[in-house]
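ok so heres the complex, two chains, lmk if somethin looks off
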Amino acid sequence: MDDLLQEFIAETRETLEALSGEIVGWEADPTDRARLDSIFRFVHTIKGSCGFLDLPRLARLSHSAEDALAAVRSGERAADQALVNAILAIIDRISEIVEAIDAGESLSDSGEELLIAALNPTAVTPNEAASEATPAHDVADRSPNVRGGKRSVRLSVDLLDRMMGGVSDMVLARNQLARHLRQNDDPKLEAMLERLSISVDDLRDSVTRSRMQRVEALFSVMPRLVRDAAASLNKSVSLVIEGGDVELDREMIELLRDPLVHLVRNAIDHGIEARSDRVLSGKPATGSLRVVARQAGNLIIIDIIDDGRGIDAAALAVKWAGSRPDRVAALATMDEEARLALIFEPGFSSRDEATELSGRGVGMDVVKANVEKAGGRISLVNRPGRGLTVSLEVPLTLAILHAVIVEAAGTRFAIPRQSVDEIVAVGQGAARIDRVGGQSAVAILRGQRLPMVTLTDLIGETRRTGTPYLAILSLREGQFALAIDAVLDTQELVVKPAAPAVMRAGIYAGQMLPDDGQPILLLDCAGIAARAGLSFERRRATIVETEVIEPLRALLFEDVDDERRLIVLPAVDRIEAVAAGAVRAAAGGLWLTVGDTSVPAWDGRGAVPRSITKVLRLSADGREIAYPIREPIEIIALPDEIIPAPANANGVVAGLAVIGGAPIELIDPLAIVEHATAPNERPLCLLHGADSDWMEAFLKPAIEQAGYRVIRRARPDQRPTIALAIEDDADTAPVPAIRLSRTRGQPIYRYDRAAVIAALRECCA
Amino acid sequence: MSGVLHLVAHIGGCGVLFDTDRVASVVELDVATPTPGAGSAVIGLAAMRSKVATVLDVRRLLDLPPRVVSEGARIGHAVAAMVDGHLYAIAVDSLEDIGTFTIEAPPAGLGAPGDGKDSDAEAQPGWDFVSGVAGGSGETLIVLDIERLVERASAIA
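and the predicted structre for the whole thing:
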């Protein structure tokens, strides 16, 4: 973290220096959009860095400045002198805090509230507040030599490159010298050379490290960043990082740092959905975020892959049309890709409210600008509802790769170690080559047939020497075998871009210079496959096929009584967050009211109505019920083994599933829905005879509780299940009837509510 | 356009001049690493100390038969220059001298089709890589614009 902080300080200081001109210019002309943009980018970057460096004061200052500037950018607010002053005061303050951090001093935060308040358009005397709050003299008096922590300086890339070149020259010279001296056979000289040799190697290591950095350095902040970002949004995200061992140009790493942090935050903030939404759309409650660095041809590609909601291009366009009415005509002609590209427009926001995390969705324009500054490009693969992949492609200007050095037709070539699965000698057991027809061949490795490319053929040489080896290369699309003449060794080498005239061959990724001073070309495996016309079956397709045969899935959730329970997924319409108070007790049950419709809510778990904020909406047979829960957990495959439920008091448990060693109740959705049976779906109970009005008045609630709907006259299409009649009524009911007695003590006495219910239930069963 | 320091060399017997300001160094190169599949003007890659240079044979541009590169043969003299961030070495037969020359504009139609060989004038832009001519000892020297030269050579399939 110390390194990061130092870098942050150095970078902020440098940007501040560069910005001072812009600030003065903006002060002179507050309507200058370009200057406004660069100041905005500055506070935005500060805010981004503060988040993961845990600098809450700076975060607060920069966030409020960003808010105010965003309002200006979107035209909601004019940049008047008061605002300019307030922003400048904040930037001054940021600079003071940064200096204080660097010096390891503490700086009183008095006045920061005033600074932030001064941004408010209604602040009466922002000038005074700002000037009052800036204790400039305190800082000026500070002794400049108090500096804590690791010190760092900034060097020009040119100087570093000269150093690298110089050291490489030295290594080559040393090798030549060593070859000569070996012929002399002088032990004293050899010992001296050995010493020189060791220091040259050490020097090369440190110079290389000064210029190059493992991609890992970019990724080391990710776990913390993801954790914090996810926690602040109450989301769960699991992070997978791949390919951190490639070494890259430090310059590139620095250029990529901010965009990467931004994209990861965006993925968590905008991409990955809230837990309950995920569960409902059948995804694991925990979102997945993968950050993968890989080298492909002469590019380094960093993919940020989430499995969130993707981008709704249509909604994006609508939103855009709202903020830029002048561009509506242009929108109509845009295709999907062009609409997606709208997120890169300056000042564009995909959501209305700013979050601590990624602000207003701004920054995609900044990200794009930064990546393009590095000579790279940014591309999107949108899978609506299923996720988004953002790929940053930057040119491989300088990188250190592990390479396998092979030989074909007497020339050495390098293959990235990353792409080589294994190298096998042909004819020795595992591998064999089958000729097919006159030209083609397939490699057979442990019984598996692989497409084969012969490197000598590909490079236009026809002579074949000895028994070839096969390098089994893996691409993202599949595997193939590359026939080579010999394997020489593996080396860690600096890769540089090759000239366009060489790259046009389409099979090279760059050039390398090993210590013997004879250049080697680095092969581009994907390029070779493409040149040889290999096509691979898409692996992904097979995965989709296997997914078709899926076990029944069930939602695991935490019930309102803190127990975990399961319910089969098809029974759940959706998981709904409801406002506290939307569920109320009424008419002896719970009711969820949304808008002007109410649905019954299940009250079997002793839910406290006003505390309910999440419900499962169940429906079956056209009937609906809300089932209050605390939290959805995840969707799991329903275990095959379900232990039938023991006779259960409220009869809504279908069985027990054992998950993770604990029995979990499986809810019977039908039983729950039965519970809330809408009146017209219940069996009919006909109140028969002259006393039907009395029965309606006194017995209706009891009858309804027994599960019946009460009618006093059966329409021709209605077929009552049972009738109630008073025993002395002369008329015979059209259906089997329960006769009620007027006399206390007789079965079934008409005021004996329990007996009436019991009799009705018995008939029903 | 006079009095500029130029490097005199011969390529396939043709006398040429390079502006010394544009030349990084003159080198004597050993064997080049072959670059199969690259443009035919590329002889290969050669190390110049710790840097890798792309070695070009520009004879075809001058309507001369290309060098015959036999395996293991030394490349010999070359003129090195940075173009577009890449280091190139232009192979020459010999390097003679450095001197100040009075450069004149190239005569119209130099190298351009029009001698009946090729009627498709648009596909053959002529020798736009020749920025001037100067008189040498008994021959006319052409001044080569290194950027254009490399660009044209790279474009040869």
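quick notes: The longest helix of chain A spans residues 157-184. thats all i got rn
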